[in-house]
């Protein structure tokens, strides 16, 4: 089969021919119908030797049609259209029992890694999924439109639901970075909270996208943003700041624009750190760095999409065009999410 692999440290992703995998005991093979490109793939490809087993097939956002069942795998049928819940855990600990496999404390010691982030990923013609419980029925959702809900939808949803109590009518939410995750975050905030949404980006096209998907205000992400947020909130600041960049300048904006007793959700992994403390963050404010989302939250995100409340802006590419799509992701010129149809 053909696959998009990151083969050696420092190289560009390549389209290669590799053997089609066979599903082992309990596993399911999907014929991939769509796979999404995430900014985290860039982070993976920036790491030193030994961080991940190489070569590695990329892609941690995947949907497909069940193609073959390994021995003992039951609960899905060949031909079912499914989405992959990618934050694989051990399946048996307390966190996993709650569906929060994204916070499984045992996964790393057991060598369990998500597809595309250690295990072979979805940017290929076929994908092996370790367990039927990682599959969520897609039903009549279009695979290309739905695939990025598994990360670009689920990750902001998890961050927003975690801060839901701070986002009643009259509150303000700031979204920093209107890329794959951020443009869905704006829609989720509009759909399930009463917050006024202020979006920040360095790129004017992304500010335009933010307004199109429901942001009340979209501002340039620079030093002037803090004063603007203070002014728009009557001096109070934002009850929640969602940082989908996580770099030093955006964390500084988050720190200075969050309200007292507010919350900062650092989703982006842009290498910045934020010192929380009595003399650095507003009184009562909390800082959190959430990871991905839970299985039940993925079901909820798919329901939101089914109801028409949220959607992903998609740029569609073929498998051969995936390296070019990664170049565009690097340049920051993707509008919404790049999705590959193998
Ligand atoms: P993306 O490339 O699609 O979007 C990034 C956006 O940020 C772009 O619109 C870009 O213009 C904007 N941006 C860059 N610098 C900025 C700045 N200084 N101020 C404001 N905006 C700025 O990225 P994505 O795929 O949406 O991912 C966003 C971040 O979230 C990445 O760091 C990614 O690795 C991370 N991520 C984290 C998790 C998690 O579980 N915590 C999951 C998925 C992605
Ligand atoms: Zn991701
Ligand atoms: Zn577990």
From TrEMBL:
Domain Enoyl reductase (ER): 10-340
Catalytic activity: a primary alcohol + NAD(+) = an aldehyde + NADH + H(+); a secondary alcohol + NAD(+) = a ketone + NADH + H(+)
Single GO molecular function: alcohol dehydrogenase (NAD+) activity
Enzyme class of the recorded protein, top EC level: oxidoreductase
Keyword check for Ligase: no
Superkingdom: Bacteria
Keyword Metal-binding annotated: yes
Cofactor(s) needed for function: Zn(2+)
UniProtKB keywords: Metal-binding, Oxidoreductase, Zinc
EC number: 1.1.1.1
InterPro entries linked: ADH-like_C, ADH-like_N, ADH_Zn_CS, ER, GroES-like_sf, NAD(P)-bd_dom_sf
Family label: Belongs to the zinc-containing alcohol dehydrogenase family.
Protein name, as recorded: alcohol dehydrogenase
């Amino acid at each position: 089969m053909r696959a998009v692999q990151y083969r050696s440290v420092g190289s560009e992703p390549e389209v290669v021919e590799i053997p089609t995998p066979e599903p082992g005991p309990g596993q399911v093979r999907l014929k991939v119908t769509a796979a999404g490109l995430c900014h985290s793939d860039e982070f993976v490809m920036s790491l030193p030797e030994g961080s991940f087993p190489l070569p590695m097939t990329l892609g941690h956002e995947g949907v497909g049609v069940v193609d073959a069942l390994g021995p003992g795998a039951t609960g899905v049928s060949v031909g079912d259209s499914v989405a992959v819940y990618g934050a694989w855990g051990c399946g048996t600990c307390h966190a996993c029992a709650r569906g929060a496999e994204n916070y499984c404390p045992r996964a790393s010691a057991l060598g369990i890694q998500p597809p595309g982030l250690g295990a072979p990923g979805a940017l290929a013609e076929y994908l092996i999924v370790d367990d039927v419980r990682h599959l969520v029925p897609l039903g009549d959702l279009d695979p290309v439109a739905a695939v990025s809900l598994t990360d670009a939808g689920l990750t902001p949803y998890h961050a927003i639901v975690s801060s839901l109590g701070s986002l009643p009518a009259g509150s303000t939410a700031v979204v920093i970075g209107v890329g794959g995750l951020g443009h869905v975050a704006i829609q989720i905030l509009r759909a399930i909270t009463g917050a006024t949404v202020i979006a920040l980006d360095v790129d004017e096209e992304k500010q335009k996208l933010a307004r199109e998907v429901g942001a009340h205000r979209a501002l340039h992400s620079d030093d002037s943003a803090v004063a603007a947020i203070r002014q728009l909130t009557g001096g109070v600041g934002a009850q929640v700041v969602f940082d989908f960049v996580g770099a030093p300048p955006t964390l500084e904006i988050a720190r200075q624009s969050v309200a007292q007793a507010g919350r900062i959700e650092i989703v982006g992994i842009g290498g910045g750190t934020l010192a929380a403390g009595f003399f650095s963050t507003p009184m009562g404010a909390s800082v959190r760095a959430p990871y991905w989302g839970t299985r039940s939250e993925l079901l909820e995100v798919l329901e939101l999409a089914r109801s028409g409340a949220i959607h992903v802006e998609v740029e569609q590419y073929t498998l051969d065009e995936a390296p070019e799509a990664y170049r565009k992701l690097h340049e920051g010129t993707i509008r919404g999410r790049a999705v590959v149809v193998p």
